[in-house]
Amino acid sequence: MPELPEVETTRRDLLTTIGRRILGVDVYDRRLRWPVPRELPTVLAGARIRAVDRRSKYLLFALDRGTMIVHFGMTGSLTALKRPPPRRAHDHVDWRLDDGTTLRYHDPRRFGAVLWTAGEAGAHPLLRGLGPEPLERDFDGDHLWRMARGRSLPIKSLVMDNHVVVGVGNIYASEALFRAGIRPTRPAGKVSRARMAVLAASIREVLEAAIASGGSTLRDYVNGRGEAGRFQFTHFVYGREGAPCRVCGTPIRARYVGQRNTFYCPACQL
Length: 270
Known about the structure:
Layout: H1 4-13, E1 22-27, H2 40-44, E2 49-55, E3 58-63, E4 66-71, E5 77-81, E6 91-97, E7 102-106, E8 113-117, H3 141-148, H4 155-159, H5 170-180, H6 193-212, E9 253-257, E10 260-264
Antiparallel strand pairs: 1-6, 2-3, 3-4, 4-8, 5-7, 6-7, 9-10
Helix pairs in contact: 1-6, 3-6, 5-6
């Protein structure tokens, strides 16, 4: 958390910053997963925001002089504040824009990142080699089926591999596998081509539904306007251990798959 829907929701909220010039950057604490570059305030001062894009779970701010890369880690958020309140604990970076807006990065656990590259964003080590985006045309069941050939790892681990497809984190992998009727522990290489097509469609469906609901807020996540998401209220399996399946009534089970807590219905998923 946050996963692709939460990052995409934030990106859409921050499209209002396109065309704005950065007057200054205040870095209060550099100690994120990777230290905030010391030169960031100097490099960004006076730069104009040309675009706000997303690759996997990374926000990409295209500027005059390169790209600013923001990752939320487990507890990060980025909000646009017209009247910024006094800093709280864990407010680590402020960007002051020329229309009076302040972009504020908040991250209690400091597992996120605020980085900078003067080169092509796609060539950055964090972005190079990533798989296809799940909402784009080059992701489909045939792609999943090819990537699964000869592999015995659980299907949930396959769809959470960023080299296979990006952005399908723990919440949405569990939800998509439920919708596709596939047990998370099923060996990826034993999922048929036809069922992979259903799974790819389910991944797209659940991500689009989550984006439409503003993402899922389980603890800290808020969007670019500081609002919580709502998709958690419609989860079929995630976080519902012991609760009745919304389809068949069987109690939802939980187990660890790839060191991640995984939820499923033993009757609906085979």
